[in-house]
Amino acid sequence: AASSDEASDEAAAGEAAGESAEAQAEAAGEGSAEVDPAFGGLGCTELFGKWQTEAWEPPRVGPDGRVPRNAFGNYELWDGDERLIPKGAAWLRLPKVSTVASKLGLDFVPVVVGFARSLGRAVPTMDGVLVSSGPMEDTLREAWADWAHKEEMAARAKHERKIVARWAALVTKALTRKRLRDEYGDF
Asked: pTM of the prediction?
């Protein structure tokens, strides 16, 4: 309370000496505070920096095609907001695309779109990857299409093998039943 009384006494003395409130604020060590008549001519201290009020822009892909990443090696797109994608990057939301990208040796970054609770912990929810747009994106899309086609063909072949095995089991059981009926009669 004593220091506020001293400050008001100094302000009154400064005004009496003909100094402006801005000059008084600088003399008091407050820097270049703006004078607002609504507050009795006292200097106001801003509670934030101008840089905090500017719109945030996502980072850019490096000149070498390196996609930006955080300390954990991934990129966060809050709630999957596509406006946050780095300039010069493409977000590929394809199943198992990270597997294909790692096999090709491309520079990619897994995308975190949120967090889920599991066993009392926050676990990141991943959705796709970020790659440099242009030829790298096209290469990865083509490679993923080939991989997906091969996976589909392998799944179809596995399904057909299961069908043949089930038919073979059915025929074997029917022949065994017929043989038993022929040998031992109707039971």
From this structure: 0.62
